[in-house]
């Protein structure tokens, strides 16, 4: 989800190699860095609408996938977006491979405690937004909803995108703080993707999770589902991605150095031999 920003994309944008916030540091320790490079992999390939039966309490944000268990960590300091109670909110989902299907967005009940594992019973019984087969415009699903009146303080928005042309579904968790101030996507440690050139929207789709075709951001396979536009989110190879010695370039440099060294030794030996021959004469 691009707005409000989802947990997995928040940590991806902070940088899996050096996250800033305590929550993302803990999540990356729990899941490993690669899960956040595969930020668009929170999905179930064959769920076919059986979300509550397939995803156990305490594991909603990971969709029950142990690869993303860091997203389920109960903490009260997850970076959050400020939104206004009772206000209309433009929710943004970016998509690179549109599919037919339905979006459902749930919000937590009053009294929700983010320091406890998230359960299905923590969510309102009915979604505050349901949208069937929205039309993607310029790679975006823009959905308008009203935050339920009477909500205040810390809450969580749980999004489900169930495809109708496949049993596959995608999930995301977005932390929000509801008050009387206007929506502020850059508050409380989050960044506004709307102002930074786009980014993950819709669902945290795809990835390299077991049980279906891979749609990972780090190792793309098949076609990309949702997530950021290719120009806004990039997987950057770091020095740690190269094998010891710097890969082919490093190997060539080492070989070249060895060759120069051996050549130099041979030259010195030849010079010494000639000098001995001259002395004998």
Structure description:
By secondary structure, the protein is of the alpha+beta class. The chain has 2 domains: 231 residues, Coagulation Factor XIII, Chain A, domain 1, CATH 2.70.50.50; 39 residues. The chain is built from 5 helices and 8 strands; from the N terminus they run αααβαβββββββα. It is globular and about 35 Å long. This is Chitin-binding protein. InterPro entries: Cellulose/chitin-bd_N, GlcNAc_Chitin_IntDeg, Ig_E-set. Keywords: Membrane, Signal, Transmembrane, Transmembrane helix.
Distance between the termini: 87 Å
- The tally of strands reads 8
The total count of helices amounts to 5
What do we call the CATH topology of the largest domain? Answer: Coagulation Factor XIII, Chain A, domain 1
For this structure, what is the CATH class of the largest domain?
Mainly Beta
**Relative helix content:** 10-25%
Order of helices and strands: HHHEHEEEEEEEH
Structural domain count: 2
**Sheet of most strands:** 6 strands, mixed
Radius of gyration: 26 Å
Quick structural overview:
InterPro entries: Cellulose/chitin-bd_N, GlcNAc_Chitin_IntDeg, Ig_E-set. This protein has helices at residues 7-14, 22-31, 34-37, 51-54, 247-280; strands at residues 43-44, 81-84, 88-94, 101-107, 129-132, 140-146, 153-163, 169-179.
């Amino acid at each position: 989800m691009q707005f409000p920003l989802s947990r997995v994309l928040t940590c991806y944008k902070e940088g899996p190699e050096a996250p800033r916030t305590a929550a993302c540091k803990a999540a990356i320790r729990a899941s490993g860095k690669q899960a956040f490079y595969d930020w668009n992999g929170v999905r179930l390939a064959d769920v076919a609408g059986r979300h509550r039966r397939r995803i156990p309490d305490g594991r909603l944000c990971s969709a029950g996938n142990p690869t993303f268990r860091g997203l389920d960590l109960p903490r009260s300091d997850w970076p959050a977006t400020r939104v206004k109670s009772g206000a209309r909110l433009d929710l943004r989902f970016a998509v690179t491979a549109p599919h037919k299907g339905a979006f459902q967005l749930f919000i937590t009940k009053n009294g929700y405690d983010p320091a406890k594992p998230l359960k299905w019973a923590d969510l309102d019984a009915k979604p505050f937004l349901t949208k069937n087969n929205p039309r993607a415009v310029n790679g975006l699903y823009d959905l308008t909803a009203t935050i339920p009146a009477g909500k205040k303080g810390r809450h969580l928005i749980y999004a489900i995108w169930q495809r109708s042309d496949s049993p596959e579904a995608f999930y995301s968790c977005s932390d929000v703080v509801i008050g009387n101030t206007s929506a502020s996507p850059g508050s409380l440690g989050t960044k506004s993707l709307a102002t930074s050139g786009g980014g993950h929207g819709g669902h945290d789709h795809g990835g390299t999770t077991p049980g279906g075709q891979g749609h990972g951001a780090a190792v793309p396979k098949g076609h990309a589902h949702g997530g950021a536009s290719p120009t806004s989110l990039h997987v950057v190879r770091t020095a740690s991605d190269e094998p010891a010695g710097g890969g082919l370039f490093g190997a060539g440099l080492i070989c070249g150095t060895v060759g120069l060294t051996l050549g130099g030794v041979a030259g010195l030996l030849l010079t010494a031999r000639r000098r001995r021959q001259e002395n004998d004469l």
